[in-house]
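User: Sequence in, structure out. Go.
Assistant: Echoing your sequence, followed by the structure tokens.
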Amino acid sequence: MAADCIDEPTSEPRAHVHVRPSRATVVEALLVLAAPVVLFLVLRLRAMAPPAAPDPAMHTTYIIDPRDFFARFSSELVPISGAREGARVGFLVPARLAYLVFGAVRGFFVVRYVFTLVAIVPSYVLLRRLYGRAAGVVAIVILMSSPVLVTAWGTDYPDSAVVSYLTGGLACLAMPCRARAQPAWLAVSAGLFTMAVWSHVEAVPLVAATMLVYFAICLLRTPRRLGPAVLVLGGTVAVVTGTLMVASGLLLGPFDYIGPTLKAYELLNNPHVVQVFHSKNPRWILLRPYLLVPAAAETAWVATFLRRARTIPTPQLLIGATCTAQIAAFGYLQFFGNTEVLQQHYYSSGLWAAVCLVLVITVCALARPLLDDRLARWTPAALVIALALVYEADPHLPAFGWWPAGLLIVAGGVVAAGIGRVASTTGPAARCTAAAAVVVIVGGSLILTAAPYEHHAPLSGVAVNAVPAYPTALGGSDGDLIDQYRIATELPAFVGNSTYPNEHLVMWLPRAHPSKLVDVIGMYHANINELPSSPPRLTRQDRTILQARKPAEVLVFDVRNLPATLHALGRYEPTVLRATVLKSGDLELHAWLISLGVYMRPSP
């Protein structure tokens, strides 16, 4: 079923004939592999994204030195699911491998390059088979110019892996192929979906919705293939899950990542946690224009393919129906469940895998008059690049909400899709109509995604969440983000490994946290392993935490009066073990590692 496998590409050689790839095929493959680097430079994509919260760096911890972190804090964090980040092995295993081979900063970019290829290569092949080589380029450009995907790839939060796995997995699931090639594409798809699930729990409802749509379409169109498909899916899931267990044990420490994942899910559904992070008042969504993009893409798809369901080609139907099911799943979990899957951009970004593929399918279907013309076939890709370049030249859109500007943009895309569908398929007028549809739909989606939040008074019953940096994803400056990341990843080497199990460490730094310390304090799990006051003032609450945790060491940052800080810790017998100034670019961080003699145990 995975895409009406009766549509066999005529260029595919027979099984018993060995044919070497042509020079043109090799060049095409090399160009696709080079596309992430070329578009990164052409579109001036932001290399890293502002973390906005310590959460991404909590995952960096397990990339840099996972065994020491588990040795120090397992007894304290595991009971409260505080080490759940270390169980997201679908992201951590490849990121850890890249770190071990290339180092921290280079490894960051290597694994992002791999994630980008995971998304764009299957998408290119899918669109190439459906609409031609030029359509494959459209897919690459739309994916790589999406502010949501660029921002997700820009931090160590696992949505960087989830968006890529889901995009590549859905493209493979919808791939037009011969019947004998279907199990291979299905296995690759199942492997990517499994990696997504074990990267972050946000992928679970998205993968579940995708597979429900797949099975429904398979049951209606090719029921005889349902049984073999289930076997391939089940076998692939088992193999990938088992392989990740071995890799987790060898690279990270614990072999069991399934138990901590389930326990974390239980914790996040605790009523007290839900009350803090989940918004009861739904009005917040009307102030976030980027959440209109899924609806805009899906309604444009409906306007483009509006006909009897049985006449819609399977790849287009699978992708469009999957996007609908995923939107419905996330909407239900947000507004009728207890999960902040839409209000937290680290979670909602997972929707953009299906959204971007729906956008690509819609644009290429409407652009057929251009794609089928030998002289104009590259026009759609050029238009998408031009739209991104126009925005990145001056990325400053006015703030607006859903009403009226947001809904007018959505309506414009639907009208453009409807006109493009009923327009003639040949002639200059048809090509002009197709070009206009591409501009309106892609440009409208970019405006909705990159528009800043509309200013408003605080809303009651609405949790405070990090604001995504979508407006600066294209043409934005990295500033000192790479320097911040480099300093954060050098911190574990300064602290050193623990000398005995549960050699706890807490941080003490000026309040409130300067934005440039977000990565640094995330390395040792801010809020959990942190004293709430500013040094050198040690409060009663601080002393209560020290008595409860009995930390052997205190990691102090950027204090102006070290003697006063040591005096405040006097009753705990402090000793400065080492001090450093971590520098990168124009940034520098002063750090001191202080042992507390009353709690420090002799090393074995």
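User: And one key feature?
Assistant: Residues 504 and 551 are 4 Å apart (CA to CA).
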